[in-house]
Amino acid sequence: HSFISKVWKSSLSCLITLSPSLCLLKCKEGHSGPTYESLQTVIDRKYFRPAVNLSNPTISNISFTLYAVLGVDEKAQILTTFLWLRLYWVHEFLVWDPEECEGVTKISLPVKDLWSPDIIVYDVDDDVSQQCPYVYVNHTGHIRYDRMLRLVSSCNLEIFNFPFDIQNCSFTFGSYMHTSKGYTMAPLHHEMSENSKKYLEASGEWELVIIQGEPGILKFGIDEWDIITFWVVIKRQPVLYVVNLLIPSTFLMVIDILSFYLPPHSVDRASFKMTLILGYTVFLLIMNDLLPSTANGTPIIGIYFSVCLALMVISLLETVLITNILHSMKCHDVPRWVQVLVLGYIARLICYTQDPPDRPEGDSAMPPPLEAPAQIVNGRNAPTPIPRIPELAQISADLRLMRTHLASVQKESVLHEQWCHVGYILDFMLFRTYILIISMYAFVIICMWCIWYRQ
């Protein structure tokens, strides 16, 4: 009780008369600034809000400079930043006349000896703050307090457009104890974004777009707290990921596309595609450390890599199918549904106009079998009997065998040409599909890059 009475006796005149002249700090001649005794009176009141009229809330301005984005953990949805927080408020008992204090307009005092607002960040998981031991006090009572903060805050990170993603995270500042009746806050936007952009230019992966502050009210029951929410919009620099992810993947896909120019019936084509798939699998394993992943979604670039791997596997299966068709199905007729579906609809759909190679004219028809000359018997034609000579009979049998063999070879050649035609159409269809998907992907990537560049 004696401590409280001692504190408030010195300011009793201020509370009763509300006269600013009675609340001025005293200065002695020969001293540069307020005297120790007058400052000690203010220090004794450090546990009380510095307001002459307690019904008037203390107004504080808040701003910060974003120095660096230390880390972004997409899986844990955590953003780690380093910023310099700056607070401004008015201490109504720290006022003096510079003319009486030899022109001194600003002094520094220990922050532990003065009242300071209890500002906290609501959406922070870890706060590693480096306290500044002093505050700067102006002769009008305006105080500036700087704090360096390393914040580990939660943020709803959207990674669908990775690596051309733009993140919008928030920092909510507010008082822990004082309600809006005793303490209010207001954002100070002056050069906040410009200073932060200047420091983030050399930070590497992230670039600042804008910082915007919006005051608000937090209600718990009948009490209300003043809060300020700062929206920090940052965008990723995609050059690193384009060089390390997109360009190698594009090279492998181009090589796989060029492999379609190898003959479909060649065994080397299948082994070449298997080597490409093995190389692409190793690339995906290396890429897994650079590609973000969350339980909420998968980036579009990850979907593209999966589609590319699936297309490579499909192209290998298509090569195996064509090889099987060209080596195993050449003795069977082409089914009717294959002719209608592949040779009819698919060929017209992909604008395939190449005809199968023509057969030599000598193989187009076989010579007719030998027949005996005819003679007229009783006005009718009748075959002339041929005398049975053993040598001629053996020659005739050999000719029949040769004719049967040539006919089977000719039929096998025709079937082989038909199945080759089917295989070429299927191969050309997958080749067109490859070209279409790669073109669409390149168009999407270019559009995303342009959108990222304009924002």
TrEMBL record:
Give the chief site where it resides: membrane
Query: Reaction catalysed by this chain?
Result: Na(+)(in) = Na(+)(out); Ca(2+)(in) = Ca(2+)(out); K(+)(in) = K(+)(out)
List localization entries.
Answer: Postsynaptic cell membrane
Q: Which residues form the Neurotransmitter-gated ion-channel transmembrane domain?
A: 245-361
Pfam families noted in UniProt: Neur_chan_LBD, Neur_chan_memb
- Note the superkingdom of the native organism: Eukaryota
Q: Tell me the keywords, alphabetical order.
A: Cell membrane, Disulfide bond, Glycoprotein, Ion channel, Ion transport, Ligand-gated ion channel, Membrane, Postsynaptic cell membrane, Receptor, Signal, Synapse, Transmembrane, Transmembrane helix, Transport
Query: Signal peptide location in the record?
Result: 1-23
Name all Neurotransmitter-gated ion-channel ligand-binding domain ranges.
46-238
Task: List the GO molecular function terms.
Answer: extracellular ligand-gated monoatomic ion channel activity; transmembrane signaling receptor activity
Alphabetical GO CC annotations of the entry are:
postsynaptic membrane
**What kind of membrane protein is this, topologically?**
Multi-pass membrane protein
Segments passing through the bilayer: 239-262, 274-291, 303-326, 434-454
Which PANTHER family does the UniProt entry name for this protein?
NEUROTRANSMITTER GATED ION CHANNEL
* Family to which this protein belongs: Belongs to the ligand-gated ion channel (TC 1.A.9) family.
What does the UniProt function comment say about this protein? Forms serotonin (5-hydroxytryptamine/5-HT3)-activated cation-selective channel complexes, which when activated cause fast, depolarizing responses in neurons.
Q: What is the protein named?
A: 5-hydroxytryptamine receptor 3A-like
Query: What gene codes for this chain?
Result: LOC108921442
